[in-house]
Description:
Elements: H1 6-46, E1 50-51, E2 55-56, H2 60-90, H3 99-118, H4 124-151, H5 160-166, H6 171-192
Antiparallel strand pairs: 1-2
Helix pairs in contact: 1-2, 2-3, 2-6, 3-4, 4-6
Amino acid sequence: MRNVSQKEIATPNKSYAKESKLKITTRRITYIATLTAITLLLKVLGNLFIIGGSLKISFTYVGWILSAVILGPFGGAVVGFCTDVLGTFVLPVAGSINPILTLGYTLYPFIVGVFYKYLPIKNKNLSLSLGVIAATVVSTLGICSAGLYYFMGMGNSMSFITYVLTSRTLQLPTVGVNLVIVLLLYPAVKRLNISNAD
């Protein structure tokens, strides 16, 4: 009977580790692609829900928040980025890519993911809600508002603060509706055991 060397024993384990890592990466890419597609679909559906001729009820936040929960901050950020870039092709009315908006849309799920994953609070509904509040203030009311304000040349007609208070705060009810939807879906996500997929 031939003696098996240590090198021969170690090789299959290394191979298995690489294969396992590859599977995780493939799974993560699949999740990112699926969540990007879902978020794009929600973005398209949002264009159908218009109140008073101008106020859109967007469901894009649902996709971003779920991406942050399922993929963590970095995976969520990739979904946010892809949603914006691909959205300019899916929805031609969106115009060309606005780098400031892209930054805001990328940071939104990133911030939610950081709060959800790292905030030392046992109640995940609370950490998720706090993440959504923080992301809404920084990204929606801050960065994205600045992108729209300067892109549309609003500086001559009103101050930035006035623009945020009169126009951008209309997004808050939409964010609230999206958060409620995610909190209702959250138990199902936990049951599927897909939260923070690596």
